[in-house]
């Protein structure tokens, strides 16, 4: 017998009922609309940027940095990034003491570059700062009216540009050290996340800075070395010290002065390569407050500077510029300056990086003893061979790397007390995530109040999380909706059954 269920097959399909169709269409539209709104509403708007400009007037040269950050986040955690840098041609502004107007003129080319890099409609709200460091500190000590004239000339030149000029001033050594530390830790995202911080080692031409947080330093011992910050809801008690005259160019003068103290017309210098031979002027050598008191009584006009390339002897010469005889604190670095026990990782930038990178010694996983051996071999290399190997480097700079490398290792180990064990904690760095390590970014962040003292309130979910959850919920609703219409589903039509 063949039974047919033709009557059922002929029943009208409930999905074709107008009400069901309308409900389904509305449901689908509602869900699509929900997801679209969630995605669009929370999508970051097309970025508008704000800008800030900082001029770093160092002892050896001036550099201009342009920073950029999303406009709607300037008092928040939005990343501030360096978008451009420009190296001013010529020496540092302190070298223009006898022709101050030229100090202003020298900045023009980089300022014109800045005009091209910053969109015109942002000019008037773009702060422009100039900070001078140890070169101007020394000039100010030596001849304060000359330093004022240099600042006047620089101000006049900068005010001619359409930016929002915020002033030119000399940073204190403490500020220079502390802002370098802020820069390094800001760029590493350590402040916002409250992570262990990185110490900062900055080596300039005329001063050097060391800044770090140490558990056994609360600022009570030697309060002048203490800087406290409250950043993103965390308190930091920073140890910082700036050694004026201990930048590599001034130490070279001090080392030469030490060797020429008895006034010989020729000195044999272990920090210069064998075969190096140059005639230098005594008065230029002593033309700095770092060495002026050491000038020999009856110095000849010139002296002959001859190299013999001996690392061990060079270390002894360099050590002679440090004073280790007195310490009125629990621990000292040198010259009777307090320093708590070293702690944590360190980033070493500016001349630390330039010198160690040139010498191929910036990898601190190489044991300290090996680094010293390599440097000793480099120092002992004859001068003419060095020149041949580096035909494109100015001789003045090329001649000084043996000295500078020796100074860096001596400063780190004898001066700051890094050991073979703690040496690998140092990283020689130039940039972090595209921004130069140095005091300028920290200085601008501070002056524009861009690092909040308290952690900002943030939505409980990040954007991606929010969109995902809304999408998943919408899909679940869709499934629920379809399942809820189950009674209306067409029943499966079956093949005729044979009984
Ligand atoms: N490419 C470069 C740039 C700078 N430097 C050195 O880095 C140091 C920068 O010092 P600076 O001009 O910032 O001086 P300070 O005012 O910080 O003491 C100078 O000794 C320069 O000669 C270098 O060795 N290689
Ligand atoms: Ca510097």
Automatic annotation (TrEMBL):
Q: Which reaction does it catalyse?
A: GTP + H2O = GDP + phosphate + H(+); a ribonucleoside 5'-triphosphate + H2O = a ribonucleoside 5'-diphosphate + phosphate + H(+); ATP + 2 H2O = AMP + 2 phosphate + 2 H(+); UTP + 2 H2O = UMP + 2 phosphate + 2 H(+)
Membrane-spanning ranges = 21-40, 464-485
Alphabetical GO biological process terms: nucleoside diphosphate catabolic process
Name the positions where ATP binds: 205-209
Q: Which GO terms describe its molecular function?
A: apyrase activity; ATP binding; GDP phosphatase activity; ribonucleoside triphosphate phosphatase activity; UDP phosphatase activity
Its annotated compartments are: Membrane, Caveola; Membrane
Entry cofactors? Mg(2+); Ca(2+)
Active site positions: 176 (proton acceptor)
Q: What is its EC number?
A: 3.6.1.5
Q: Mostly located where? A: membrane
Give the PANTHER family listed for this entry: ADENOSINE/GUANOSINE DIPHOSPHATASE, ECTONUCLEOSIDE TRIPHOSPHATE DIPHOSPHOHYDROLASE 1
Family as reported in the entry's similarity comment: Belongs to the GDA1/CD39 NTPase family.
What is the role of this chain? Answer: Catalyzes the hydrolysis of both di- and triphosphate nucleotides (NDPs and NTPs) and hydrolyze NTPs to nucleotide monophosphates (NMPs) in two distinct successive phosphate-releasing steps, with NDPs as intermediates and participates in the regulation of extracellular levels of nucleotides. By hydrolyzing proinflammatory ATP and platelet-activating ADP to AMP, it blocks platelet aggregation and supports blood flow.
Annotated protein name in UniProt: Ectonucleoside triphosphate diphosphohydrolase 1
Q: Which gene encodes it?
A: entpd1
